[in-house]
């Protein structure tokens, strides 16, 4: 069977919604999709802190508007390292959320950390999450990566160039036995320069994302994947440079 033709997909795989306490109130799922469409994005991932509760709404809205949405989360390990867990379907993402919630201590104080809003397709508040989503879990980095892979997801260390919650700053190195699928650099580092400017990531495939907390930041930077379709399996092949799939820089 002939391989499927490869296309270019413009992706921003780390976007926060109003559910993250540091996310702007305007970051409702509906508005995120509208802004992503305006930015010409084909593929995005909703990655709130330690939760996926706004991802389902964004996925449904994205399907209407022609933007593929992956459910994910930015998990904070016990080492206070941020790591993306990206999935294709809601069911494994919910299982990951249950695993994280079971290991996430504390309650949110909105007056200190910010509100944590669960919204619907009509920009209406349907709930506020009471957990301390901004906090660190009891899970080690290896636990998070292993559980993500067990559920069929991708695991990438976040903003490895930044001092706050980046693995290089927190640990000084990336453990040799940590089975990451790749790493992410912030918008402050050009993807073309990442391997030359961030020591310790040379052997990892690298993406860049907006890590948007405000609508204006969505699509400020992006990663272009050359692959057959916007799926986790194809992104994995792009990270591994298999079958012509790759990250275009």
* Spatial gap, N to C terminus: 30 Å
Structural Rg: 17 Å
Structural class: alpha/beta
The CATH superfamily name is: Metal-dependent hydrolases
The backbone outline, from C-alpha atoms, is: globular
- What's the overall average pLDDT, rounded? 96
Helix content: 25-40%
Major β-sheet annotation: 9 strands, mixed
Q: Quaternary state, please?
A: single chain
Which stretches of 5+ consecutive residues score pLDDT under 50?
none
Percent of residues in beta strands: 15-25%
Determine and state the CATH class: Alpha Beta
H/E element string?
A: EHEHEEHHEEHEHEHEEHE
The tally of structural domains comes to 1
Q: What is the level-2 CATH architecture name?
A: Alpha-Beta Barrel
Number of helices: 8
The strand line-up of the biggest sheet is: 9-8-7-4-3-2-1-10-11
According to DSSP, the number of beta strands is 11
Named CATH topology = TIM Barrel
